[in-house]
Amino acid sequence: MGAQWKAKHKDLAANAKGRLFGKLAKDIMIAARHGADPAANSRLRLVVEQARKVSMPKDTLERAIKKGAGLTGEAVHFEHAIYEGFAPHRVPVMVECLTDNVNRAASEMRVLFRKGQLGTSGSVSWDFDHVGLIEAEPTAPGADPEVAAIEAGAQDFEPADDGATLFLTDPTDLDLVSRALQGQGFTVLSAKLGYRPKNPVDASTLNAEQLEEVETFLAALDANEDVQNVFAGLQG
């Protein structure tokens, strides 16, 4: 769970597709500010590839690109904000928001963190590394993630979900490593900048009720319309 919290329960995942499309549309619009052509805009290319992997409708994808690039005449004003704090039982949390109303986002974060503890800037971020996170799966049996990490220039790797591998990079190397992994027998499922906990809480130290409280808290954060990513210091 450490790199980026993901809903594990089926009832939480049921509405995840719609939320995911909404989050990706925001990412696409932000990236498209620097050009509507994915071939000439590496940030946009990575997000578009991720959107296609999760079967975002083509018209939704193209509309987000045009809107972000200013080709529709609509103004797009999203501001980036990061909130730091603790989930129940002192699990550190970093929350990334993209919002068109900073005051609304701040107010809603204060409400959501009532069941945890909202911190000030720097109160939790010191315990996280800012890294590139690339989730990839082998295109053929026998592809070696360790060899791929070395050859592609990743800093580290570890198993991810369903046979995939999570490759960690320096933030400035995200696009370079993503492209290099494809030449090492891996298909990139997602590539983004994020936060990696240095000292995650071991989930085995929490009982079932405590873990459920943490999960419920994180799910409520993830469901907020302004929240793009939730990074929790919880391992296992």
Automatic annotation (TrEMBL):
<dbReference type="InterPro" id="IPR048300">
    <property type="entry name" value="TACO1_YebC-like_2nd/3rd_dom"/>
</dbReference>
<dbReference type="InterPro" id="IPR017856">
    <property type="entry name" value="Integrase-like_N"/>
</dbReference>
<dbReference type="InterPro" id="IPR002876">
    <property type="entry name" value="Transcrip_reg_TACO1-like"/>
</dbReference>
<keyword id="KW-0963">Cytoplasm</keyword>
<dbReference type="InterPro" id="IPR026564">
    <property type="entry name" value="Transcrip_reg_TACO1-like_dom3"/>
</dbReference>
<keyword id="KW-0238">DNA-binding</keyword>
<comment type="similarity">
    <text>Belongs to the TACO1 family.</text>
</comment>
<keyword id="KW-0804">Transcription</keyword>
<protein>
    <recommendedName>
        <fullName>Probable transcriptional regulatory protein AACH00_07630</fullName>
    </recommendedName>
</protein>
<keyword id="KW-0805">Transcription regulation</keyword>
<dbReference type="InterPro" id="IPR029072">
    <property type="entry name" value="YebC-like"/>
</dbReference>
<dbReference type="Pfam" id="PF01709">
    <property type="entry name" value="Transcrip_reg"/>
</dbReference>
<dbReference type="InterPro" id="IPR049083">
    <property type="entry name" value="TACO1_YebC_N"/>
</dbReference>
<feature type="domain" description="TACO1/YebC-like N-terminal">
    <location>
        <begin position="5"/>
        <end position="70"/>
    </location>
</feature>
<dbReference type="Pfam" id="PF20772">
    <property type="entry name" value="TACO1_YebC_N"/>
</dbReference>
<dbReference type="GO" id="GO:0003677">
    <property type="term" value="F:DNA binding"/>
</dbReference>
<feature type="domain" description="TACO1/YebC-like second and third">
    <location>
        <begin position="79"/>
        <end position="232"/>
    </location>
</feature>
